[in-house]
Every structure is written in structure tokens, then in C-alpha cells.
Amino acid sequence: MSTLDTRELGTLQRWQRYIHGHHWRSSAEEFDAVKFGFWLFLSTEVLLFGGIFCAYFIFRSLYPAAYAEGSQALDWRWGGLNTVILLISSYTMAASIYCVQKGLFSRAKLNLVITLLCGLLFLAIKILFEYTPKWSGYFFVLDPALSHHAATVVEGKTALFGLFQYVEGYGGKRPGSLFDHPFAQNADIPMWWSVYYCGTAIHALHVIIGMVLIFRVLLRVNKGYYGPTHYTMVEIVGLYWHLVDLIWIFLFPLLYLIH
Amino acid sequence: MNMLLTIANIFSLDWWHKAWLRSDGATDLARSTDETGMFLWWFCAFWFVFLMALMFTFVARYRRKKGQIAPRSPSHNTPLEIAWTVIPTLFLVWIFFKGFWSYMDKMVAPGDAVMMDMRAWKWSWGLTYPNGSETNAFTVIGARQVPVFYIPAEVNIKLRLESQDVMHSFYVPDFRTKIDVFPNRYTTTWFRAKAPSGAKVHPRSIAEVESAKASAASKGGRYTGPEYIETLAGEPYEDHWIFCAEYCGDEHSEMAAILRVVPAPAFDRWVETIGTGSLSPIELGKLLYARKGCSQCHTVDGSASTGPTWKHAFGTARQFTNGESYSAEQMSDVAFFSNYARESILTPSVKIVSGFGNQMTPYAGQLNDRELNALIAYIMSLGVNPPPVTTEGDAPADSSNPNAGDSQGAPAAPQPQ
Amino acid sequence: MAATHDHAHHHGSYLEPKGGFWTTVVDWATTVDHKKIGVMYLVAILFMFFLGGVAALALRLELFEPVRTVVDATTGASKITGQMFGNPDAGGIGAGNNLYNRIFTLHGAIMVFMVIVPSIPASLGNFLLPIMLGAKDVAFPRLNLLSWYVYVVGSLFAVAAIILGGVDTGWTFYTPYSTTTDADYWRVTLMVLGAFTLGFSSILTGINFVVTVHKLRAPGMGWFDMPLFAWALYAAAIIQVLATPVIGITLLLLMFERIFRVGIFDPALGGDPVLFQHFFWFYSHPVVYVMILPGMGIISDVLAVQSHKKIFGYRAIAFSSLGIAGVSFIVWGHHMFASMSELASMVFSALTFLVAIPTAIKVFNWISSLYKGSIALNAPMVYTLIFLFTFSIGGLTGLPLATLSTDLHLHDTYFVVAHFHYVMMGGTIMAFMAGLHHWWPKMFGRMYNEPLAILGALVVFIGFNVTFFSQFFLGARGMPRRYASYVDEFQLLHQISTVGSFILLVGFLIHLFVFLASFATGRKAPANPWGGLTLEWLADSPPEEHNFPHEPIVTHGPYDFESVVPHHWDPSDYPIPEEHRAVASH
Amino acid sequence: MAHSPANSAAFNELDPHGFEGHGQHAAHVIIGPFTLRLVLAALLFFTVLTVGLAQLEVGIQNYFHIVLPWWVNVVVAMSIATVKALLVMAYFMQLRYDNPINTILMLFTMGALALFLFFTGLDLLSRDVIEPQKAGAIVAGGTGKQVVGTGDKPLVVAARERFMQKLLDKHNGNVAAAEAEFEMIKADVSPHHHGHGHDGGHALPDANRTFPRFGTSGALSADDPHHAPASTGH
Q1: Residue ranges of chain C with pLDDT lower than 50?
Q2: Which residues of chain A are modeled with pLDDT < 70?
């Protein structure tokens, strides 16, 4: 998208000065095409996660016992909380598009910031309450689940200035050959953790990418690149963020709710 | 159809049959597969010739001529297009069913089939007979010593296949069938080998083998027929290759074996006599050397291969990739060497001899103690100065035993048939 | 249409340097012009084709003798290559087949991921699609440039993996071998990362083409006024978009498996190797049609133009392209008949036969298009005929591979090798050569030496068939693929094949000379040397910066030869009878 | 090929080939905050619903001892997820007001995904249709030739032995003490599952009692691969 700074329109906002690419007939056509192109990209994303869903589907069918045991080791409350967070962020993202369309820039920025914060919160919960304890056995001190381990908390075995408490016999729910959970009933249970970590990690990666894009949009909204007549990037990034949400909408029940 | 026949008369059917198939299928199913294949060949040949004839006629007929343009001609013709859509489709449906039925025949073993266990590993095959024994016959393909699996003729045999490491694929060209072999899973295949033609029979005496070897040597070739086996003297046999058809690494192309079909009664006599109980440690070790696939990577004559040669392994200093090194004195000590050899066989990755890759499959769980000791005894017997042999009746390392010489095969050896 | 073409405001060809040497280099490196990007792709792909070709020749040399020769040769040269391919012992003790295995992996990976998949779409397609549609550029020019750089980066990863010691997994990366081999090295991971990266480049190109076809067709160009090459590119692009992400996740999981030992595919960790094969072929079968469909498009176009004949059954060909694209997603199982369950094998075999139908339709249409044409036997046309010849063989030999009982015998033998070389090389590469000659004047503004080019084509044709037809017999006689040494019985056929491969080399060297010579001494190309009716012949040779001075308006179909005088052609050279010409005036 | 001439007078510059239809203007729809909030509310409601139903199923099974068929759980969760996804796509992603081509594209994508799952499942889940032996479950570390550090034991067995070894070191070799602590820790793990409100707290069965088939090398000695001897690993 090229902007013409050379024009004698210094007084105008950048978005008012925007003119479409030379090979398009109109910015409307360009907008439509860009959206279509991005939907094509989204379909590739869907199929990318399709691989994860396929692996899940196959292994759950092959090793139902292992998957039942595995899903029991996840806490639906963290999953549910993360779902709510992502849904809210999706709303704020959509709202920010509306605000840009209406030229309400300060509200747009606010919405974008909230979206970013939601993303951060999502990642924080994943890392502090989901990955770290399961992988290493170190619980975040604020983790409610810690209360169930009062008996097995190893005194003095802490990490990061006591922010993490080690719980004997809990950790080691790692994938594949790293698996170290001594109380598994089922030799196939590492397969569950393989799919769990691969799926959620790739999703988390998408969350991070989405946040980077949103941050860029935030900056450019601030600089006045986007406005009622030109907000293509805002819309595109919004679509991407909604897709990230969409994937999680399916991952959540698959991992946390189906026993 | 009569078109087919005219083509068939122009070229002799038989010629093409020989060109495509190196020999007739060795099972009924293989023969039916050949029929399908040859039918497909003529089907394809017909369409190809037809299309090319049209093409070249048109090209010759409608070359461009200066100052003339193509006359108007129909740019589509619905009935014609429907015709050349529907007619091939009908052919295809028929071909599909033809292939499908004989595929199911290949897949579904008869209820009375005798089950045998076939194991594949990097890079050899091992067959366990119903009585728990394994073959003791070996031959040479190319420069490699490969096992010979005796199979009774006209008996339904069902193989249960499993792999010890990576994927392999059990492929017998003469049976026109192939099945992939997986670790941690079984696959099965079955066959009913046709009776040997009688063109080739087992030697009736050691002298006969010797003369055959001599004549082969005189021709610059190499005798790859069976050794003299008492229980099989004079019995007809038919050899079929076993190949690994799924890429499995370094020695993939050496992972071959021979399926030797003999009359069922002869097989029963033979399979009773191949227990290993009577063998001395060194003989047994020599047998295992071939049977367990050691011969794929380790030579006994000091020549190059994937793994270090066993000749003089006992009594030669070793340098390992992890920096350790054993002196010749240490390696000459029986106890010390035995422990080193045992470790290297069971968990090879612990000490890798410098200059070699970490290629070997661990044999933990594949050898019992007697076999392990036998192998070590055999390796030591190939050493710089082998320890005195306590067991009676074992042959020296360079005996005339066929298995000993096999690994020093001339590069281009005639194949087993 | 020629009326709208006005030489008054002529912008100058896209090839004109923008100043000094470095200015020009920077201009090319940062260009968003689809034509320049197409040419850059062409150069990169031809270089990779050269690398893969050298590897192929090395393989054929090795197979000249039944036992290991090249690999075991104790010459210093092989020692050096041995070190290069991560096997310090090559030529020394225990060379094994390491070197051979690494070379055939190199050949397969380069030829598939870096040559054939991008060959036609990314080079000729990039250059021609917008011009054929009468557009100024592809939908997303900067994305287009990005895809080229991604391609280069991916190729660098792969080449790095080779220089770091080579990869011996085979281009299919079958687990568990690929997850366990060279466990202590990063090469395999690097190679997989390379393939993963190349996938992105392929996706970007696909998205670009789909949107371009949807949104940037010139005024008056309905869907059925598009050249068939555009149709084919469109179908191929759809496959690229829908299939490539699956190889993405496959390779990603493969990398996880090697790095973190998560076991989704490795049975030793509880995974399932057959699952990997499904993942892999869900991409890699459709992608076979990404390779061949654009080739078919080129053939349809070249054949119509070079014989000045309305293509027979335009809609049939267009729809069969889409049909193939659709069916290609439900037949991948025929790569796995030896490892799949009986039920799935049956279903996939039945579905596989479906592909034969649209393909057969295309061939019938092409051949009947020749009927009553005015056929010019120049290099593009010769290559088109070669395509029809070799591709028919490739297609027909697909039948015994789709038939379950015979496939159990032929699977993973040289029969398969011959089959896919007949389709991929005899199909895609031959069509690529046809298109390259056909549009060479358009791309570079110079004609090539016709007789020499035809000679090269014939040598390639002979070499190709000698090389690969013998391999059909090898396979049917039971010679498994990926073998470095084999039983003596196969030697004669292998030697024939090796000889053929060097004839092929000669043929391609002739072509190399022809192309270089055309730069040096080729005469200036007219705008429309073959008398084509599609829009690219309306543009100059080479086209100007933005392809057309005005946006062209399409008033006739792409192949209405019997009613329209080709642009830039003298009507007296093109005597259309009046009663027909009347039709043209709509 | 019949060809319809383009009339350049009636030619619409913005919509050169009448493909987009109403897409042109639809692309610029503005969805008001009211709609958005409504959708958000619906999404949150469905989230609560799906979690609640999942818990309900668990409760029914544990307290009323009514065993629901396995698919109830799946169907409920998945259909709710689908509804949520449709809401997001239709309103947040504006598919409802957008150029229909995007919707068609998504349908195609879903089609491809469905084919992918269906045919892969068709193979991997029907291995034993003809030959029961082919259905053998793949046991992690079954042949044990590839997994670092497990010898020829399944991963879990190896993991358990590693863990016991840790306890032994801790009690410097006192087996009894180690066993005792092992039991104690195990007892403490099951309440953890209580706490997370998953199952009705059925204690984990003795981890050493049963294992799946000990990989093919172990099963070879057995007549029937399905009832191979229990692991000889310990």
C-alpha cells in the first residue's frame, strides 16, 4: 500500500492520503482482493492445525484409555479461563475495527491495548499454570492446585526466588521419551502429552505472532495510518486474531472437556 | 478385442511376456497377477499406439502451408466427448475389480496356513520355524552372505512380520507380492509356493559340491548352490529372492535373502535337524555370525565394511570415538575382551570404534547367554593369537566350512539361481 | 483489439537497465515487477535443476556396475566428496552406501521441492499470468517478491544441510528412519526446515495466483475467455493453498520429533509411521498435480497457437483441470498399498482410477485439436508432441500402479521410478521446455536458433526414453528402488539407462547453448512471432514496464483463430474467408 | 466455445467481470457495538454451557452411576464448539456480510479437512478388519531399540524405575522405605485429581499391575499377540 507524501495535502491524515496500488482499479477492489487473499491464507492456517486435529483424532481412537487419563490431568478451569480471555480479546479486536471505521481513534487504541493485554494474560496462564508444573513439577506459588499438594511440596526446593514450589511426584508429564510420570497406568500416555504440547505450543506461537501484528497496528493507528476510508490492515489483523480464537474454541473442549 | 489379437499376432505375446517377467510367477496368485499385468500391458499398448497413430497422422497431414489458415472445424462434439469419457471409465471399473479380487486373495490367508515369524532388522532377515529353530543355511548375493530360508512346497504358509528397528518391506518378486514391516506392530502375508521344477537338486555328496565349486571357479564364477545336506540329498529345490523394498538406510540394498522351496516331506526332515544344541561354541558363533546379520557389517577376513572387521579384533588395540582407548594387552585378556565384546553386542552405542558410525542395532533381548558366549568365542577364535579351544570338535577359523569364506566374496558373484 | 494498442506512449522494456550496474542489481533485488520476479525464479530454478541433474548422473554412474563402484572408489576425489557428504570413510574403510543414499536424497529433494513444484508456476506463470489476463501485475506484488526470497532461503537451508554432510532419509522423510538417522547431527532437521520454508514460498505464490485470476482479469474477459494456461495455473494454485499447509505441520512435527523426541510418528515412542505417510501424501500427492497441471496448461496453449486452431473442447479441458484438482485430494493412499489396511487400499484404489478419466479427456482433446489444424513444427510444437508421447506413457503406466494386485508387485520398484519420471520429467519438464521456447521471444525479446532447438529436443527425447523406458522392465522384473548395488541379472538394463542419461545431458547442453546464443546473436523478436490471440501477444517483446499502455479490453475468445487476425499480423498473411470474418466482428 | 462480447459502454470499471456481485459494497459493512456485544455474550454463555454439561456428565456417571455412551460427551462438546465457531466467523469475521466467495472458500477448506480426517481414519482404524494381528497397538519403547535410556522397556516402565531409583538413592538403598514413600506419594496424587474435580476420585489402580503388550519382541514368544505375557521388565 503506497502513500503519497509528495502530494500537497500535508494537512490531511495519512489515511486520507492513501491511494490504492497502481494495478488496482479502485481501493474498494483492492480491499476486497486483500481480504480474499487473506481468507486464502486463513484456510492454510486451518489446514495446518488440521494436522494436529488429525493426530488427536487418530490417537484418541487408538489409545482411548491413555487419552482419558491424560485429559484428567488437565484442569478445565484454566482452559475455561483462557477461553473466556480469548473471546473477550476477540470482541475488543472487532470493536477496535468498528472504532477505526467510525474514526474513534482513542477508543480504537484502547480496544487494541486490551486485546494485547488479553493475549499476554493467555500466555502467562499457559506458561505459569499449565506448562511449568506439568513439565518440571515446579508450581507457581499462586497456583490454587498447589493446595492439593501440601503433603508433597518439597520444603526448600524452590526456583526463581521462591516464586515456584517443587511438588514431588507431579511433574514429568512431558512428551515422548522425556516422559517421566511414574504413576501412569498406560504406556501410551506420552502420546497424549505429545499431542497436547504440540497443539497448544503451535497455537501459542500463533498468539504471539498475532500480538506482534496487533502491536504494529496499534502503532500505525497512533500515527494515523488507518481511518474510515482505509483500514485494510486493521481488518486483516482482526481476521488473524479471530482465527487464533477459533482454533482455541476447538482445542479447549478436545483437550479439557472430552474424557 | 480382435484389435488386441491382431497386435498380439504382430508381436509374439510370448516375447513380451518374457520381456516383462523374468520368470513365471511362483504361486498361483502370482500367475493371476501376471495375467492382470500382461492384460494391462496390452490395454495400454493398444491405447498408446492408437493415440500416437492419430497424432502423427494429423501432424503429417496438417502441416502448415504458407498463406493458408486452418479451415473451420468443430471445436467440440458432445457425443464424441461423452463417448471417450464413458468407454474408458467402463474399462477402468473392470480393471479395478480384477485387481481388487486378487489383492484380497493375497491378503487373506487360508485358515490352514502354517504360521512362521519373520523378523527384519538393519540389515537382514530372520525366520523362526514353528518348532522354534532357525535356518542354518546361507549363500551369497553379490558380496554379501545372506540366509537361505527353506520353505515346503504346496503348503499354505503365513508369515507374521515385525521389524526390530525401522520400517522394512518384505518383497518376493517371484511371488509378486510385498508387505511393509513395522516396528512394534505385526503385518502378515501368505503364499503357497509351487513345487520345484526339478531342474536343480541338492547335491548328493560332499564330493559333488567340491566338483561343482571347482568347475564354477574354473569358469571364474562362484558356486552358490546348496551345500551337501544329509536330509536334503538329491531333493529338488527352487530359489526365490527376498528383497527389502522400503528404504532402511546404509545397507538397504544388501538386505536380501533366499527363499528356497523344497518338497514338503524333505522340509519336515530338514527342519527337525537344524537345532543348534549339538554345536560347539565356535561353530554356533559362526552360525549366529551369519544368522543374526553380523555378516552384514562385520567381515572375518579384515576387509572393509560398515563395522570393524572381526579378524584380529581379539588382541588389537582399539581407539573409541568417546576418547577412550584399549591397549593391545587389555584386548588380549580373555575376561577383559569378553566384557568389552558383550557390551558392544548388547549396547553398541556405548563404545564406537573410531572411524565407524553409530549404526548397529542393539542386540539386547535378541541373544541368550549361550549364543552370546558362542559369538564371543567365535570372535576370539579369529583373534591375533586365539586362546586354546576347550570344547572338542570345533573347526579352526579358516575351516572349509562354507560360512567362513562367504564374506570374502568376489564383488560380482552370479546370483543364486 | 489491436486498435486499443497504441505505440505512442511506449514505456520501454522491463529489461532496460535502470542506470549503472549496481543500480540495476538493486533494482532487480527490490523489484515488485512480476516479470522480473519470474525471470529471477527462472534463473534460480534452472540452477537447482543443474544441481539435481548432476546428482542424477552420479546415481546413474554408480548403477552402471552391480556392485558399489563410485562410492567405494578409493580415489581422492571420492574421498573428498565423501567428506563433503559427511562420510569421512568414503572410499576408505566401511564406505557402505552412505554416499549413494545421500546423493539420491539430494536428487529427489532438490528436484521435487526446488525444481518441479515451482518450475512452471513460479517462473513462466509469474511472468505470463498477469499479462495473459491483461493486468499490470499480480494481486500482491510485494508478496510475490517475498515468495522468491523465501524460496532462496529455503534452498539455502537445504544446500547447507547437504554441505554439512548430506541427508540420507530419501526425499520422503519416512519415519522412523528420518527421526533416528544421523541422530547427533542437525542436517536432517535443517533439510526438513528447508522443505518447510519452501512450502511458504509455494503458498504465497498460490494465494497470489488465485486472487489475481479472480480479481484482475481484463475488462470483457469472462472465466471462459481465459487462456487454458491461466485455468491450469488457477487449479494448481488452489491445490497449493489447500495442500501445502499439511506438509507444513508434518515437517514441523517431524522437527519436534527429532529435537524434543515427542513421538507422534516414531513407533519407539508410541507414534505411528503410517500416520506420517498419510500426512505426507495428503500433500505430496496433490502436489503432483501442482507439478503437472501447469504443464498441461502450457500444452493446451502452445498446441492451439502453434497449430492456429481453436482448442477442441475448451470447457472440457478447463473443467478437467478443476476435476483433477478436486480428485487429487482423495487418492493419496495409492502410495501406501503395501502399508495400509485392506479396506482403505480398496477405497483408494477405486478413487485413484477416477484421476485417469479427466486426464484421458485432456489427451483426447489435445489430439483432436490437431485435426485440421495448420501445424507449425517448431521447437515448442515438437516439445508439445514429445509431451503427448511421454505423458501418455506416464499416464498409462499409472494403471498397473493403481491396480491393487499388480501394485503389490510394482510398488517401490523401478517401475514406479520410471512411471513418475515419465509423468514429472516427460510431462512437466517437457511442457516447461515447450513453454520456455514458446514464450522465450516474449520474455527476452530475442528469437532462438530454431533448427538447433529442434535438434536438442530430439536428443532429449531419445535420451529420456532410453533412460527411463528400460526402468519399466527393471521394475517389472523385481528391481527395488533406492538400491546402490543389485544382482547381476539387472546389469544390462541399468547400463542402457545410464547411457540414456548421458544422452539426456547432451540434449540439455544443446539447449543451454541455444538459449545463451539467442542472447548473444538471436534476432529481435516480433511482438507476435507465432500469431497467438491471447493478450500476451498484444504486448511488446519484451513487454514494457506495466505490460500494456492501456488496460486492454477483450473482445474475442483466446483461440478464435478462424475468425480473428492475430495482433501485429498482416491480414494478407492470414486470409480469413469473409463469411467467417463476419463472426469476428462481434 | 460460445463467446459473449463485452459491451464497453455498459462496462463497469469497478466490477469488470460481474464476478463480485454485491461483494463490492458488502466488503465495507460496519458492524455496530451492540451486535458485537450480543455475540460476545452468546459466546460466553456457550462456554459456560459446554463446561457445565461436561461436568454434569461426569457427575451423572460418578454419583448416579449411569454410564453414558462415550459419544454423548464428544457430540455435546463438539457441537457447542461448532456453534461458537460459526458465531465468530459470521459476526466477528463478518463472513455473513462479506463477499460470498470467502464463505465458499471456507467451505472448501472444511471439505479438504474432512477428507483428510476421514480417509486417514479409514485406514488407521480399520487395520484389523481382515487380519486381527495387524491391529496390534503400538507400545512406546516396545522394541526399545530407538528410545534413549529405556533399554527395551516401555517408556512408562522405565520412568517408574527411574523414579524408584530416585527414591532408593534418597533412602540410600533402603528398599522398604522407598516403597513406603512411593505408596505415600501415589496416595497424594489421587486427591490432586479430586481437587481438579475430574473424576469421582477413584483411586489410581496399582501402577505395577498391568501393562499393555510388551512390544513385539516380547510378544513373539506368545502364541497370541493379543494376550502376550505381562511385562517381564521387572
Answers
A1: 1-9, 73-78, 88-94, 582-586
A2: 1-10, 185
Determine what percent of chain B is predicted with pLDDT higher than 90.
28
CB D157 within 8 A of CB A187: yes
Please state, in angstroms and as integers, the Cα–Cα distance from residue C413 to each residue in B96, C14, C105, C169, C471, following that order.
21, 48, 16, 17, 9
Residues spanned by the domain of A160 = 138-171
Contact A203, A248 (CB under 8 A): yes
- Nearest Cα of chain A lies from the Cα of C264 at a distance, in angstroms, of 7
For position B396, what pLDDT does the model report? 38
Band (B399; pLDDT cuts 50, 70, 90): very low
Give the per-residue SS3 of chain B: CHHHHHHHHHCCHHHHHHHHCCCCCCCHHHHHHHHHHHHHHHHHHHHHHHHHHHHHHHHHHCECCCCCCCCCCCCCCHHHHHHHHHHHHHHHHHHHHHHHHHHHHHHCCCCCCEEEEEEEECCEEEEECCCCCECCEEEEECCEEEEEEEEECCCEEEEEEEECCCCEEEEEHHHCEEEEECECCCEEEEEECCCCCCCCECCCCHHHHHHHHHHHHHCCCCCCCCCCCHHHCCCECEEEEEEECCCCCCCHHHCCEEEEEECHHHHHHHHHCCCCCCCCHHHHHHHHHHHCCHHHCCCCCCCCCCCCCCCCCCCCCEEECCCCEECHHHHHCHHHHHHHHHHHHHCHHHCCECCCCCCCCCCCCCCCHHHHHHHHHHHHHCCCCCCCCCCCCCCCCCCCCHHHHHHHCCCCCCCCC
Identify residue D217 by its one-letter amino acid code: S
Give yes or no for A178 touching D (CB within 8 A).
no
Contact with chain D for residue A23, Cβ under 8 A: no
Looking at the fold, whether B140 and B166 belong to one and the same domain comes out as: yes
Please indicate if any CB of chain C lies within 8 Å of the CB of D115.
yes
Rounded Cα–Cα distance for residues C465 and C468 (Å): 5
C-alpha cell of C375?
A: 501445424
The one-letter amino acid code at B200 reads K
Mean pLDDT lowest for which of B222-236, C266-280, D170-184? D170-184
Residues of D in contact with A77 (CB under 8 A): 196
pLDDT at B323: 78
Q: What is the CATH number of domain C325-523?
A: 1.20.210.10
**A138-140 and A164-167 strand pairing:** antiparallel
Q: Please, which residues 543-582 of chain C have a Cβ atom closer than 8 Å to chain A?
A: 546
Q: B-D interface: how many C-beta pairs under 8 angstroms?
A: 56
pLDDT of residue B4: 62
pLDDT score at A68:
85
Which of the four pLDDT bands, split at 50, 70 and 90, describes residue D60? confident
CATH of domain C15-284: 1.20.210.10
Report the residue of B32, B47, B252 to disrupt the C interface, i.e. the one with the largest count of C CBs within 10 Å.
B252
d(CA B87, CA D121): 33
Distance from C-alpha of B6 to C-alpha of B116, rounded to nearest angstrom: 47
D39 to chain C nearest CA, in Å? 30
* Whether residues B127 and B262 fall in one domain: yes
Judge whether B76 is closer than 8 Å to chain D, CB to CB: yes
- Asked if residue A145 and residue A92 are part of one domain, the reply reads no
Looking at the fold, whether A148 and A248 belong to one and the same domain comes out as no
Range of the structural domain that residue B94 is part of: 2-53+78-107
Task: Name the pTM for this structure.
Answer: 0.85
Does the pLDDT value for residue B290 go beyond 50? Answer: yes
Pick the closest to residue D198 from A72, B112, C129 (CA basis): A72
Do A210 and A246 belong together in one domain?
A: yes
Chain B neighbors of C406, CB-CB under 8 A: 33, 36-37, 40, 99, 176
